[in-house]
Amino acid sequence: MTIYIKILGQIILSFSFLFLVSCEEGFFVEVPSESATSIFDQAWNFADQEYTFFDYKELNWDSIYQEFRPLVSDDMNEEELFQVIGDMLFLLRDGHVNLRSKFDRSRNWEWYLEFPENFNYSLLERNYFKSNEQFVGSLVVMDFEDVGYMRYSSFSNGVSNDDMDYVIGKFKDHKGLIIDVRNNGGGFLSNASKIAKRFAKEKQRVALVYYKNGPGHNELEGPFSTNLTPPDDQLLFDKPVIVLTNRHSYSATSFFTQYMRELENVTILGDQTGGGGGAPAFTELSNGWELRVSSSVTTDPEGFNIENGVPPDVKVDMLKSDENNGKDTILEEALRLLRE
Amino acid sequence: MKISLVLPLLTVFLLILAPSVVSQSKKEIRKAKRAERKANTQKHRSPLMIYPVYWGIQDTRTSPGIYRVFGGGAAIRTQKNGPKYILEHNGQFNFGLGLPNFDNGALQYNTQFLFETYYLRHFKSNLALGIHGSGLQVSRITPALSNSSFASDAAFGLGPAGRWSTNMTIFKKTTEVSITAAMPIISYVNRVPEFGLSFSGTNSFIAPIGRFNKFSFRIDAKRKFKKSNENTINYFYRWEYYGMEEFEGLHNLRVASHQIGFHLWIKKN
């Protein structure tokens, strides 16, 4: 028993020593305070160092600081502070810039709210699918007899090689395939490549990417090529393809649209995508709020920046009169083109 | 005639054979010394040991604060302790859960791999000096930060090391207490810093002391088992710190860790 007491004593002694020496904050640089002014400065600094589109959008971030910093005082409450920082970030006009707190998420969604909706899923369901659609993984698949249709509503939802093999196998003898990514707000880029490479005939460069590598607004490394390589062991689709887009096709969907636009048998139809060509980097502020800003730049192989969207090859808007008559103008035009 | 024969033979013996006899005896002396050293050399191996770890991390891109990481670790060590030198290898793995020191911060998962080798020559009776090589790989995963969820530091360093040891009585038992310190003077560093795009932000560079600073010291207290004079139990406390300035001061990484535990040294024949 005595021996156990001795061992216990030694363990307690050791832990006491551990506690005493664990105060090494002296080695650490000063932790910023959670005051309103400090939080504001942290948010402004992170955007200043990480955001990649100041010049592209002709924004003077220093002037914006001068405009908003006087609005912040340490006696304001956190909702007031959130509002000020949110208003400042709004000026970046970027769907990838958000401040998230436990009570709200700041955002600028003008990139689709100021444009025609160009999509009505209820209309598709009631007048085109009529309960004949198939759900293949996260894909909604419809056979229009001579034309195939595939809807992908979010790049955050996984799509497997088997799903794509099924869709391509099903429509391989059809006149063409419609890929509907309207109102797809984005998700994982890996899914964009996984789908797009099924339509490539050979290895092809489809985009260039630049990454932030320093605190200066234009300190970028790159370009790094994004290439599509057709897989050897999976089914490929070599018939005409039409991709349907609208302004709510954002982020990974813009990347996907850009990848597809480079392929020769693909037509982009509908409205310009919403953009979102910069992958967002995330940080935490010292009060626990999470901030993200775009931290890369994506262009097409010729250098066209897709931050504000990928333009369609054929611009078509949904007509209100068509919609009232149960018709999707954009889908109708795609069906017409493939049946020509 | 006899004398005339003896003298040349004696000359031949002295010039040719005698040195070889002397050389033979030197070799024997060396051989004996080697055998003696070998007899005095002790090889120990420490099987897998498990211990608690605490460490703190700060990366000041926007200075969210300090992550306090609580976890555990496991290690394997070997030691060869000769009359002239000590050769020691230490391999360990730590895992911990990181808690931020600010409200509503995201949880972090931390892993550390460390391999280190000490080669120390006995300088005085209780002091050994030599070199130390180490490889350290630390990964931090903060799932809530999406594209920025992964950060890592890998550092391979080489530098001086020293060990001071003495015998003292602790809890009425003779205990060999030693303090080992090491500090790489040049390191190869590979980093994926916090709060950037994890998939693109790898930086690699050779960093001398000043740019990448790493220090470690370990206090060991060894005492013999009752039943055996060969095997020992070893209580230890290890402190390690590393830090660097990077990306024009945006990443001022600071990491300090504490480990406490005990392990067994089992003598190898």
Question: In a nutshell, what does this entry contain?
Answer:
Chain A has 340 residues and is an alpha/beta fold.
Can you give a write-up of this model?
- Chain A has helices at residues 2-21, 36-50, 61-68, 78-90, 110-113, 121-129, 161-171, 189-196, 252-261, 320-324, 329-339, and strands spanning 98-100, 134-136, 139-143, 147-152, 176-180, 204-212, 220-228, 241-245, 266-270, 280-284, 290-294, 296-299, 314-315.
- Chain A contains 11 helices and 13 strands.
- Chain A has a 7-stranded mixed β-sheet, sandwiched between helices.
- Chain A has 340 residues and is an alpha/beta fold.
- Chain A has 2 domains: 33-108 and 214-224 and 278-295, Transcription Regulator spoIIAA; 113-201 and 236-274 and 309-339, Alpha-Beta Complex (2-enoyl-CoA Hydratase, Chain A, domain 1), CATH 3.90.226.
- In chain A, strand 8 (241-245), helix 9 and strand 9 form a beta-alpha-beta unit.
- Chain B has 2 domains: 1-40; 43-268, OMPT-like (Lipocalin, Beta Barrel).
- Helix content of chain B is 14%, strand content 63%.
- Chain B has one helix at 2-40, and strands at residues 42-58, 67-81, 85-100, 108-124, 127-141, 150-170, 173-182, 186-192, 203-208, 212-224, 232-246, 251-268.
- A 10-stranded antiparallel beta barrel of chain B has the order 1-2-3-4-5-6-7-10-11-12.
- In chain B, strand 11 (232-246) and strand 12 (251-268) form a beta hairpin.
- The radius of gyration of chain B is 26 Å and the shape is elongated.
- The mean pLDDT of chain B is 81.
- Classes of the chains: A alpha/beta (340), B mainly beta (269).
- The interface between A and B is large, with 45 and 43 residues.
